[in-house]
Amino acid sequence: MWTQRRKDSRGYKQFFLICLSHDSLVNYYKTNFQLMQHHHYSLSEIDMMMPWEREIYLSMLIDHLKEEKERQEEQNRQMARR
């Protein structure tokens, strides 16, 4: 039983290493810094996230920022027409 559990935990570690291999260490720290400074996450909140959960929140945040930028550009175009 013990060896079975141990094998499973290695599998998860390998899975997350493969899934998150696109993220460099520098990018990881820069992203954490931006989340803390601009979006008011605490470091403990970021560290407590599962790796896949962090990816989901980041993609949602990126989508939100793109929508905000588009909305602001549309607003600027409307102001320029007046």
Descriptive overview:
By secondary structure, the chain is mainly alpha-helical. The protein has one domain. Helices cover 85% and strands 0% of the residues. The longest helix has 31 residues, at 51-81. The chain is elongated, with a radius of gyration of 19 Å. The mean pLDDT is 82.
Topology (SSEs and partners):
Elements: H1 2-19, H2 25-39, H3 43-48, H4 51-81
Q: Which structural class fits the helix and strand makeup?
A: mainly alpha
Number of E-state strands: 0
Percent in helix: over 70%
Largest sheet report: none
What characteristics describe this protein?
single chain, 82 residues, mainly alpha, 4 helices, 0% strand
Structure summarized in a few sentences:
The chain has 82 residues and is mostly helical. It has helices at residues 2-19, 25-39, 43-48, 51-81.
